[in-house]
Write a sequence for this structure.
């Protein structure tokens, strides 16, 4: 009896070949699992394609709502942006797919899981580490890394020889992974970090020559750090992200071009488009500025960095993340209010913010009549703040030049 293996199946050429390769070369009974996280796949066709490629069973699932609520929202609340820029779309999607692989494997009594990552990127780490954390007894194989080395032409021939229909689309010049939190684009001409990404790399966002001439405003409502609607309208997480991707995309918002430090040690040129994630991070940060006390706000930036790094490095199921989530959730208890965002020619800027928990006190901040700030207290405050430097200047000299007697 062949052992059962669950393959994360995207419907693309690589994983279609992998279905057959795992059966023929590694003697597995292959079951496929396709997860929709918002890249708009035709789920029914994908299932049929897996079966035609030789899968014993093909399961397809819509996990978009779960993805936004349980993966994107925690990252948003944490302020998690890798290298201060990348909202982590791909990195957040992988652990959810890994979790479903593990659950399906247990249901089917499979002893192995498989995924289509190469041996060069972060995704292999994320899948393998997530599976190790959730089901240490399961074994993982990544065909593209672990022996199935074929060129695109060889892959097409491999399927044709076996009578498996191949939809040969024109080869994409890029390697793309997309979900609701963003679209990751790499390879091809993007590998030259000196060259501007060509317009055809972008699918969700308009170039500046095609954006509306008039700006538009969005009023985003947050409750405890979570966006809950626009203006008067409450919206489901899925609808909200979907809507922001659409309008943000029209305005050309959320293009990111960066040189990224991959976990496997190399620098890589990465291009992203993430309109909703970009808008929501800008708005969320603006609200935090208003309601977080100064020390808490400063510390939160450290937590954000730690959180982003952990997600990027595939440690989503680490207890460290649970601990960070506990801190983040606590930090969000006053992050309730409304942020007005202006979309204008590729930018999303804060136009206004308000909250019932705002720590901004007009009477303390004003330079006009009604000022309640204690100006006299400033003198004593400055005297003590400056005391260590004054002492050092007197004893050790100014600017490193000694004034003390030899
Ligand atoms: N560099 C990004 C990350 O590590 C995106 C990876 C995208 N994967 C892909 N197959 N194009 O999260």
């Amino acid at each position: 009896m062949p052992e059962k293996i669950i393959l994360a199946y995207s419907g693309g050429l690589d994983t279609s070949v992998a279905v057959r390769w795992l059966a023929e070369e590694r003697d597995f009974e292959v079951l496929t699992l396709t997860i929709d996280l918002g890249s708009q796949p035709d789920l029914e066709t994908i299932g049929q394609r897996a079966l035609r490629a030789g899968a014993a069973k093909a399961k397809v699932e819509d996990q978009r709502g779960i993805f936004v609520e349980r993966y994107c929202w925690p990252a948003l609340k944490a302020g998690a942006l890798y290298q201060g820029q990348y909202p982590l779309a791909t990195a957040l999607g992988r652990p959810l797919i890994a979790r479903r692989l593990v659950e399906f494997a247990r249901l089917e009594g499979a002893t192995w899981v498989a995924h289509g990552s190469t041996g060069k990127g972060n995704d292999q780490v994320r899948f393998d580490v997530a599976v190790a954390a959730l089901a240490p007894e399961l074994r993982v194989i990544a065909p593209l890394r672990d022996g199935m080395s074929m060129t695109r032409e060889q892959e097409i021939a491999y399927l044709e020889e076996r009578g498996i229909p191949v939809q040969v689309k024109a080869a994409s010049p890029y390697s793309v992974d997309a979900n609701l939190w963003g679209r990751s684009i790499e390879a091809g001409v993007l590998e030259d970090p000196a060259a501007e990404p060509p317009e055809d790399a972008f699918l969700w966002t308009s170039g500046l020559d095609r954006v509306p001439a008039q700006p538009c405003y969005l009023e985003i409502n947050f409750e405890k750090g979570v966006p809950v609607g626009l203006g008067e309208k409450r919206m489901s997480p899925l609808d909200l992200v979907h809507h922001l991707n659409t309008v943000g995309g029209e305005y050309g918002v959320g293009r990111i071009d960066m040189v990224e430090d991959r976990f496997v040690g190399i620098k890589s040129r990465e291009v992203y488009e993430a309109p909703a994630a970009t808008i929501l991070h800008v708005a969320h940060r603006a609200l935090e500025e208003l309601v977080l006390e100064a020390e808490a706000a400063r510390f939160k930036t450290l937590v954000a960095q730690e959180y982003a790094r952990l997600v990027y490095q595939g440690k989503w199921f680490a207890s460290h993340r649970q601990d960070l989530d506990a801190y983040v959730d606590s930090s969000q208890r006053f992050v309730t209010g409304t942020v007005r965002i202006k979309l204008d020619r590729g930018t999303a800027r804060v136009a206004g913010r308000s909250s019932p928990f705002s720590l901004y006190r007009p009477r303390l901040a004003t330079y006009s009549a009604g000022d309640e700030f204690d100006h006299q207290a400033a003198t004593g405050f400055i005297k003590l703040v400056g005391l260590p430097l004054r002492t050092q200047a007197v004893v050790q000299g100014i600017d490193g030049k000694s004034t003390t007697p030899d």
Observations:
- The pocket of arginine is lined by residues 90-91, 121-123, 175-177, 184, 186, 260, 270 (CB under 6 Å).
- The chain has two domains: 3-161, 175-292+334-354.
